[in-house]
Amino acid sequence: MLGLPDGTRACLFDLDGVLTDTASVHAAAWKQTFDDFLRSRAEHDGTPFKPFDVKADYGPYVDGKPRLAGTDSFLRSRGIALPEGGPGDAPDADTVYALATRKNELVQEKITTVGVTVYPGSVRYLKAVKEAGLATACVSSSANAAQVLDVAGLTALIDHRVDGVTARERGLPGKPAPDTFLAAAADLNVDRKQAVVFEDALAGVASGKAGGFGFVVGVDRLGQADALREHGADTVVTDLAQLLEEQR
Fold it and tell me: Record keywords: Ribonucleoprotein included (predicted)?
């Protein structure tokens, strides 16, 4: 019924792009943050301004990664190396930490003012998973996961959460390392071979593959089905409801 291997006991869902359309919110926040920085840098250096391209830059460099790692990854793709900095940095400081903080503030503002769009097919699938008696966890790099789940009305469907806050508290490396997914399975007392990872990001499916989980579902929201398979997805769907329909 759920399109999953026999013996599955838990479903580990990424949040942004899998359950909610906050990926578009994050992409818009990244673009605004990077474009402001790149424009200022170009004006200072007298060089052409090349904006952040959501289609070309979002997936490979920032999607699914912790904010600091995503910030540094994109900057290095442009040949820019900034000092990491720290929490005490001024908002306009030219550090990785300051840029990541600006991006997070924009995300929080957009979530509060615009709200969160939930994928209807994901809600259907989540409810079917719960009705089947499987455990559920949200595994997200975002430090705003609890807020997003609450605003989206999904909290009651999620048994456990391992997010950016959890990773920082436990010292867990972010995706594409498998540690956050492994922590979620362990917290649920489920063997990794009996857990399924649901991810839309290339870094996310790579972490599912690296963790040795029983099955990895790639959710293709950006037209990158082939890349999701190459990074470790066992199957790729454009909407989680397809997994229910395939079993009819």
Answer: no
